[in-house]
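cache lookup: miss for this entity combination. No prior model stored, computing from scratch. Input as submitted by user K.M.:
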Amino acid sequence: MMYMSVNVICRWGMPLAGLCLALVTQVSRAQMGTVVGTVHDAMGQPLPHISVVLESTPLGTATDLNGHYRIPHVPAGTYIIRASAVGFQSQQQTITVVAGEEVKMDFVLHVQTLWGDETLVTATRRTQRFIEVPASISLVMPREIETRNMLSLDEVLRHVSGIKMADNQVSVRGSSGFSFNTGSRVLLLLDGMPLLTPDREGIPHDALPMSQIARIEVVKGPSSVLYGSGALGGVINIITKDYPETPQTTLRFFGGVYEPVRYKLWREQWDGADNPRRFGGGSFSHARRLGSKHGFWLSIACHEDQGFTNSSKARDLDMFFKVQWRPKSTARFDLLGGWTWRKSDNFLYWNGAHDTLNPGELIFGGVEASGTSDNQTNHFSLMPSFTHVVSESFFYSVKARAIGVVIQPLEDDGTPKPVAEGTAGVRYGGELQANWMMRQGQDLTAGVTTEQLLIESNFFQPDTAATAVRSQPERAAFLQIEQTLLGRVRLMAGLRYDTYRIDEINIVRKLSPKLNVSFRMAEGFTVRATYGQGFRVPSVSERFVNNQSYLPIVSNFDLRPELSTSYELGFRGQMSVAQRIAVQTDLALFWNDYQRLVEPKFIAHEQSFQFVNLTKARIRGLEANFDAANTEKGWLVSGSYTFLGAEDLIDRTPLVLRSRHLFKAGFTIPIFGPLSLGIDYRFASAPERVDSDFSRFVRDANLVGPRKVVDARLMARWQRFSLTLLIDNAGEYYYVERPAILASPRHFTLKMQAHL
Amino acid sequence: MRVLPLFVVSLLIFLGCDHGLAPPAVEPVGAIRGSISYVGGQTAWPSRDSLFDLRFFALPFVPCDTLDLFRDFNQLVFSDRLQYWTDTDSFAVDSVDAQYYLYSGVAQQFSRNLFDWRPVGLVDMYRVYIGEVVELAITADFNNPPLFPPDCKQ
């Protein structure tokens, strides 16, 4: 009976995985044995983070960095033990545990696909198998982040299908053009909690615990029904790791150089361009269990970059931690926190196509605007959460969050100016969510959220009231019901009601519905149809920014929320070819209508730029993803193609800064011994239309061509040590990701990593 | 899989031929230098409350109104701020696009408003050739400024 109830609870999945483990301690300790072993891949390399469980029991664990696992306190008896993980074919064996003895069981797992059938995702506020999620979703696993030495989220997202980066701004299937990194149309979640920055409501790419990411889920299409404003184009959900069963320490060091640009004319304009520009850094992380109820992980990382352009130096230091406490078998408390310090020169726009390495300058009237800004940023986050399993069919979670940012401009000597001359803001809030399994195949998810944003900035229009602090409180309630019909059809319907107080008088109210249907044609093959609405309330910075220092821009108090309506048909399939090659494919046809899109525009009578509700647009297209892996040879191949028909419905012209074709492909192959080679290729066609307003002021800002970028890597792995040589932009291709900023030229990185 | 290394090398060679964005083949720039004579001497200068900025400017088109200046702000060439309350002055603007300049002279910003500019002296159209310096002589008269905006119907 004990096992049965625990199994029911475990069906809730990953959020409760820890609770399942905690329940182990409740089992009678009489007549116990222990199961130990090691999990390797087909090449004999140890596999960390592999889930090893005893079927039909709550007993299980995950392998450590050496591939070892240990399951103590196993009642004597015969069990089926199963090892499984993302991207590997699961293996199972029958074992007999004898009281007082240790049973050894090793596994060899063969690569299945990059995203295996066993993968669980939670971006829909409920844990589901990847194959069953009725939405377009891409996953990034920690091995990809480690292998490519990705230091920030934007580096990760560049490799995700359907995503195009414009500097730090994320565009999912053409949802965004370029808006000075202000007001993201893609919502970022950290362990399910919204994490947009208080200052610009953008994504803090540099302020995330990159070394402790368990996976990244990218949901494409509006998700406002679950997460409210901001989820207009999609949701990025970062899931951090739990503490491991055995202590783990990881050291990582890297260093590299940007190759001098090939064109003499560019090098002649700046003294620093003739020599290789250096970057480097390191990180330390440690994770361990502390007794039967506690555990933690801690990561510290630093990074310094001379930058490949004049005025793009950066130094940063970050520290993150996660503490977990399981006071009872049915309760769990997590505290995730972090601090990031960054001092950087920010290159805003170049001095023209003849001088791409120097920032430009705008002088007109009495205004002198500079194409660079220097500042120091401190970013804080603290996120406690509590989960309580009330019964076999009901649990709830209470979460809180506080995210702060302090940005200080720098004096010429690098000393930070007073905060009053910069920006200080905090976003805090909480949510209560309940999950109720009403009956088998029928699930209900409901909750309420509240959030407040307080921000004061020297760049904002002063308030007429006594305080200069701007705010935008939010309240919301949501409900989602899922029903399985005939064992093959899964219906999901949801509704969310949001209110935003945007000033003393006006409140924005929005009702967001969503309806999803998925049909399992056969094991491993599903089709889906989705309908949803999304919205985004303009950020405080879009409404109140008022500054002449970098580009003349004035506030617009009258901005209205952006709206989107989305339809999608999709197919997902997983199969095995000739018993050796695992193949996975995902196809999607999508149709997104956007209204009141907010874009920056030069307003002549204001003599400045201003964020305005500029247009309505339609983005239609298709996306195809393909992954294949040979389980014997150990190679992986992946590719994706996205076609976007993005039309401005007011002007009947192509939408600004959207590429019609996105193509990404990559492979990893073993060469010999511990060596393997990986290559990724990214292509984005030239936008059919560029931002003509920006190019009025910044020389050659309309030069936005195609992107054809090759990244190569050579890896060598030994037991606890790995060495990687990365050649990013190996083809030495010069391009811009956003107008008037040259993207990284060819650069070489050597990375060493050791698990102690 | 044996063909894969060959494919990789071919891909890199193919991609290595295209380097994307490149600087202009020849930087098509010249320079403009000149002298300015102010009619009436120092006594003819406006008061400080109507003199917020003063610069040499050059445009490749004739603006029909002030907003036209923002039609293509990148095309606007201007010097550093000129001296105030002087009889004569000089200016130099390097690295200007080699092309025809149809509307050039000295402009005064007469209020804090960014658009409150007026020309106080103009020169005839001229052409800047690549690598060459154009010398201008401008006469500026604060009390009898040229008509602005000019008559675009002509």
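stored under new cache key. Chain A touches chain B through 45 residues (CB under 8 Å).
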